[in-house]
Design goal:
single chain; 4-stranded antiparallel beta sheet; 2 domains; 3 helices; mainly beta
């Protein structure tokens, strides 16, 4: 369902490598990556190995010079595909580390933790029970973005004391991708709309 072709140099030049699944360390296959083509699927890219560092979301399209286009400081070091998912969504979010403080169980999107729940520091830990989610450092789905699959996340302090102020389900990304595959939204796909990644 997912496929990417990575290239060493800009504009799809140099040695290439085809990827169809998660890769924790691309250095085993390529020494650098300056361009790529997303043939299918929704993907999260990371500028450090083992799915660490800044995260970026890309859908189907061609990215001949993504580092200059998006202002990235490092090339892609690891990647994972966001799985297609059509089930229910459920997440328990906590005001503090280690599942402490006020808890809210979420089944849908939230554009502002501060205004809805009066969480001045945002969400500091969570337990994703169902579905795949995107969380953002600012309200209204702005700023840096992180992907969360099912699992326990006891503390965000290991991620540079990151705080999250809004979140939503990944269904939006997949709905758009399916529309493109069905020919309902033919356009050059350059992901990174303002609400996915905006630098301040």
């Amino acid at each position: 369902l997912g496929k990417i072709v990575f290239y060493e140099d800009r504009n799809f030049m140099g040695r290439s490598w085809e990827c169809s699944g998660d890769c924790a360390d691309m250095s085993s296959y390529m020494g650098r990556c300056h361009s790529f083509r997303v043939m299918s699927g929704c993907w999260m890219f990371y500028d450090q190995s083992n799915y660490m560092g800044h995260q970026y979301c890309f859908r189907r399209g061609e990215y001949g010079d993504y580092m200059n286009m998006w202002g990235c400081n490092n090339w892609v070091r690891s990647c994972r595909m966001i799985p297609w998912y059509s089930g229910s969504y459920r997440m328990r979010m906590y005001e503090r580390d280690n599942y402490m403080g006020q808890m809210m169980e979420m089944t849908g999107d939230c554009d502002n933790f501060m205004s809805h729940y009066n969480w001045s520091h945002g969400c500091m830990s969570c337990h994703v029970m169902d579905g795949h989610w995107m969380m953002y450092e600012h309200p209204n789905y702005m700023g840096r973005m992180w992907y969360f699959g099912p699992g326990h996340y006891r503390s965000f302090r290991d991620w540079g004391n990151m705080r999250f102020m809004s979140m939503r389900r990944d269904v939006v990304l997949w709905t758009r991708t399916l529309q493109e595959l069905q020919g309902l939204g033919q356009h050059e796909v350059h992901e990174y709309e303002a609400h996915y990644e905006q630098r301040y």
